[in-house]
Amino acid sequence: MNQPLLSVKDLKTYFPTKKIFFNKERQVIKAVDGINFQVNKGETLGIVGESGCGKSTMGRSILRLIEPTEGSIKFEGKEVTTLNQKDLRKLRSNMQIVFQDPFASLNPKMTVGSILGEALATHQLGQSSKERKEKVKELLGKVGLSPIHIERYPHEFSGGQRQRIGIARAIAVNPALIIADEPVSALDVSVQAQILNLFQDLKETLGLTYIFIAHDLSVVKHVSDRIGVMYLGKIVELSDKKQLFQNPLHPYTQALISAVPTLDPDAKKDRIILSGDVPSPSSPPSGCAFHTRCMYRKNVCENVKPREITVSPGRLVNCHMYDEDYFVEFL
Ligand code: SF4
């Protein structure tokens, strides 16, 4: 068994909402509500779910760009949640993030050379500005851009090129782990494949580990070794990619997979259409949070929260159908 690079236990990130006039109690949005997983060195864990399910908040909480409310995050065995600002800064050279919108995350007043040079200087990489300039040129080459781009500003690049700059900034500081938060969802489909291939190439050449967050299951399928499916702040199924696609267990996973388009005209798929919208995380349904949309729900689902069931090594599901205490209700 590989040594986990990252271990997340019972992670919760809650946001209090504004007090409503007649309401004595302040409401709480449970954006991340008790998440557990490990990521091994060199693997890609895909996290998929509809928008608003808490996957981006989870990614930012791991880096402490948003402070988690409870839980443990261990990176290379070291607890992240209790680090002071100085140690947190050091840790951030090991854990980087690539954002969805590269344009918003790049300073429009700085050239690409300055953006990447600044990342190197912040983490004391490169002795002199000349040395850093050489490193910047090298970085541009690694992400498929020409060194002649060094003096250009972000607005002079296409969306795909800007995302390459975002990736170059992330790898500039030699991280072990990159959290990619919807890194291709703002790009044209033709450019998406190029950026996904770049992620794959860099993983192999630099020995990187990824948490790859996306709402599109076909994108996550392309890059991941294992996949976690999120719904209303929880991972409802965690599995090896092949098993997840061959035999999805959770009804929500079944619905997501049924909606993935296939190029095989002989592949027969009955699309599962979920009724209703995703409930608000400020007032999640009782019992199983998915019960308002689930085609298999029973009375127990409305009243009792499902436990995390290990159905086989490394395969977890949050559903009463797989719980020996309740499965008879589904026969
Ligand atoms: Fe559906 Fe019940 Fe399973 Fe929830 S616990 S996913 S409602 S069958």
From TrEMBL:
CDD domains: ABC_NikE_OppD_transporters. GO terms for biological process: peptide transport; transmembrane transport. This is Dipeptide ABC transporter ATP-binding protein. Belongs to the ABC transporter superfamily. Signal peptide: none annotated. The keyword Protease does not apply. InterPro entries: AAA+_ATPase (IPR003593), ABC_transp_ATP-bind (IPR050319), ABC_transporter-like_ATP-bd (IPR003439), ABC_transporter-like_CS (IPR017871), Oligopep_ABC_C (IPR013563), P-loop_NTPase (IPR027417). Residues 15-257 form the ABC transporter domain. PANTHER family: TRANSPORT ATP-BINDING PROTEIN (PTHR43776). It comes from the Bacteria. It holds the Pfam family oligo_HPY. GO terms for molecular function: ATP binding; ATP hydrolysis activity. Keywords: ATP-binding, Nucleotide-binding, Transport.
